[in-house]
Design goal:
The protein is α+β, with helices and mostly antiparallel strands and 331 residues long. 28% of the residues lie in helices and 25% in strands. It has a 7-stranded mixed sheet with strand order 1-2-5-6-7-10-11. The longest helix has 32 residues. The N and C termini lie far apart (41 Å). The site of zinc ion has 6 residues, from helix 4.
């Protein structure tokens, strides 16, 4: 019996793999165009994660994950590549590639349903990202329920999901943009600069929504209890958000202050290719990490491993990523 059962499993596995092949080939083609390589052999569906912080209902939503080769060309670009590889190895991670998640956040307050960042959008769907709306619906929320969309910054993986077929993805929402970020990306000079592709996306996805937007400066109140804070460096107007519930409990949304749960935290000084002002981004990283470690605050980081909710422990000049496990969950 045992032998035939094994045989049965082996046969179905092969048949199943055969059925999946056309889909995988498509995904690989699109991702290869972006210079990324899709790894085979894993299927996962992280979906959404919801918890209460006092009176606030907080949901993290997976827009998908993406693999990139050559971590040393993204993190620690001012270091010897061997040093970057050694740190990855020490942390039991592959040295040849890394995987990042994309995690928009939804917060339900008394009167608002606020979405922070919007994922990569429809253009990335074939490559396995752009899943925000699907996950939003799975969590019981329709796009038209969202009352306010706030952006940490205007990189494509945060603004790509604002539009769907050239129409606003969240038709009833108002918007909140960083004033400095908006002014930088909508400056006509940007369309003739190394950032021209991203500036073109801002012109297409963000600018048409400006008449429904409020513009945030450092320390602006988004809604009562949620404050925008300047965290410049990754982009010129990058914002993070301090979220305080009615019982005084606080959570930080750190956007792209840190982009990798090991490399950004353990070596906050290292220069990162994605950071537009590398020195300022490193200073901001250390300041924000120091604050959340000292105050023992939970944080949600856009590119952290799903559900992207964690704490930070200070260890000399380095920081350790401590995933939230049951501190905030009522089980
Ligand atoms: Zn990002």
């Amino acid at each position: 019996m045992r032998v035939s059962r094994r045989h049965f499993i082996a046969t179905t596995t092969v048949a199943g793999a055969g059925l999946l092949m056309p889909q995988r080939a498509g995904a690989e083609g699109s991702a290869a165009a972006n210079g990324d390589k899709v790894r085979k052999g894993a299927v996962e569906n992280p979906g959404f994660f919801r918890f209460m912080l006092g009176d606030l209902e907080i949901t993290t939503l997976s827009d998908g994950r993406r693999s990139a080769n050559n971590p040393e060309k993204i993190y620690g670009i001012d270091q010897d590549p061997k040093v970057v590889a050694a740190l990855l190895e020490e942390n039991l991670l592959p040295t040849g590639h890394l995987v990042n998640g994309f995690t928009p956040v939804l917060i339900r307050t008394g009167g608002e349903l606020i979405l922070f960042d919007t994922g990569l959008g429809a253009g990335a769907r074939d490559a396995g990202q752009g899943r925000l709306i699907e996950q939003l619906k799975a969590s019981g929320v329709m796009p038209e329920d969202v009352t306010l969309v706030a952006l940490t910054h205007f990189h494509g993986d945060h603004i790509g999901g604002l539009m769907e077929n050239d129409r606003p993805s969240f038709p009833n929402a108002r918007y909140a943009f960083g004033r400095k970020e908006f002014d930088f990306w909508t400056d006509p000079a940007r369309l003739d600069s190394p950032q021209k592709n991203n500036a073109a996306l801002v012109a297409k996805n963000v600018k048409p929504l400006a008449d429904k937007a409020v513009f945030l400066d450092d320390r602006a109140e988004l809604v009562p209890g949620i404050q925008a804070l300047a965290a410049y460096g990754h982009t010129p107007g990058h914002l993070i958000f301090r979220v305080t519930a009615s019982d005084g409990r606080t959570l930080m949304l750190t956007g792209d202050t840190v982009n990798h749960f090991v490399l950004s935290l353990q070596r906050p000084d290292w220069h990162v290719a994605f950071d537009m002002d590398k020195e300022m981004a490193a200073q901001t990283r250390k300041r924000v990490l120091d604050m959340i470690a000292t105050d023992r605050l939970p944080f949600i980081g856009y590119h952290m491993p799903f559900p992207a909710l964690a704490y930070v422990q200070k260890n000399g000049d380095s920081y350790r990523y401590v995933p939230e496990t049951y501190q905030l969950r009522e089980i």
